[in-house]
Design goal:
single chain; alpha+beta; Beta-lactamase; 2 domains; five-stranded antiparallel beta sheet; two-stranded antiparallel ribbon; globular; binds 6-diazenyl-5-OXO-L-norleucine
Length: 314
């Protein structure tokens, strides 16, 4: 086994404990009431390489919901369903500089399509492009996609989180109606049905091991490292990874690109999916968030790992 891997195995527990100290500077998300029960001092990481080796450190037994991490994958599924040209008539390719749930630019900037697929407005537009005869079928196809990528067919929606978000998602509802007004959602679209698909994919229950397993497929350009089977076309993985660099950590994406320099996507549950291209898939959970909505300790840990092991792509 290569040197860096053995070194990682030895050093990871200590690096993790250093980063855990950052949890005191963060707060667990409460705007979806059911998320507020997560352990604020928790921090766990799983790293998977392309040869099938896996290292866990810290609180990897924490389960949490995918939240915005799911947006990277619904984007790739929508691209597989519709092709690049169609998808990018409904959603842009640029960072916003605004909060992840902002609706400012939908009104301010013509043609009123969401700036990118990783902000809420963009992800709702993407959910509307998932193929299926009913919202159940669409949400079912998304869940199946996650079964394939994680290799875990028991993955399922956390009903409590799903209902909690559905009940309190006034802003997402406003965004979706705005998208209909702007013809991003067609005239005959049932907004509640689109939102249902979105709430369900955000509420899929997962853990660090799943995130690392999915990330190593992205690190391997969409091919399953174990079988070589191309699960996602290379081009769509390239698009997804580019969005992860430019928008994956919201308004802290530029800062994270400078400090860590690897593609990553965070969620308000405190999860981060990251990857070292060609080498590793990484899953992190640290429910305490900074003001930008990213895991405080998770960001600290990824940045210190990248610095120690020279992982930056830049
Ligand atoms: O729509 C929402 O607000 C959540 N389901 C997902 C947001 C999210 O994870 C933003 N991430 N930092």
């Amino acid at each position: 086994m290569h040197n860096e891997w053995s070194q990682l195995k030895n050093e990871l527990p200590e690096l993790l404990e250093q980063s855990r100290k950052e949890t005191i500077h963060g707060q667990v998300a409460e705007y979806i009431p059911e998320l507020a029960h997560a352990p604020a001092q928790g921090l766990g990481i799983t790293i998977a390489d392309r040869q099938g080796n896996v290292i866990h450190a810290g609180d990897c037994s924490i389960s949490f919901t995918l939240q915005s991490i799911s947006k990277v994958f619904t984007l790739m599924l929508a691209l597989m369903d519709n092709g690049e040209e169609t998808v990018f008539t409904k959603v842009g390719k640029e960072p916003t500089g605004d909060d992840f749930n902002s609706m400012l630019k939908l009104e301010l900037v013509e043609p009123g399509i969401p700036f990118n697929p990783l902000i809420n407005a963009g992800a709702i537009a993407v959910s509307s492009m998932i193929k299926g005869k009913s919202p159940q079928e669409k949400a079912g196809r998304v869940l199946e996609f996650f079964h394939t990528l994680t290799g875990d067919a028991s993955l399922t929606v956390n009903e409590k989180v799903y209902l909690s978000e559905k009940r309190t998602a006034h802003r997402n509802r406003s965004l979706a109606y705005f998208l209909k007004e702007n013809q991003v959602l067609d005239e005959d679209t049932d907004v509640e049905e689109v939102l249902d698909v979105y709430f369900r994919h955000c509420s899929i229950e997962t853990n660090c091991g799943h995130l690392a397993a999915m990330a190593v497929i992205l690190a391997n350009q969409g091919a399953d490292p174990a079988t070589g089977v191309q699960l996602i076309p290379k081009r769509y993985v390239q698009i997804a990874k580019t969005f992860m660099i430019s928008c994956g950590m919201y308004n802290a994406s530029g800062e994270f690109a400078i400090q860590a320099g690897i593609p990553a996507k965070s969620g308000v549950s405190g999860g981060i999916l990251a990857l070292v291209p060609g080498r590793y898939g990484i899953g992190v959970i640290g429910p305490a968030l900074n003001s930008k909505g990213n895991s405080t300790a998770g960001v600290h840990l990824l940045e210190s790992l990248s610095r120690s092991y020279g992982w930056s792509m830049f």
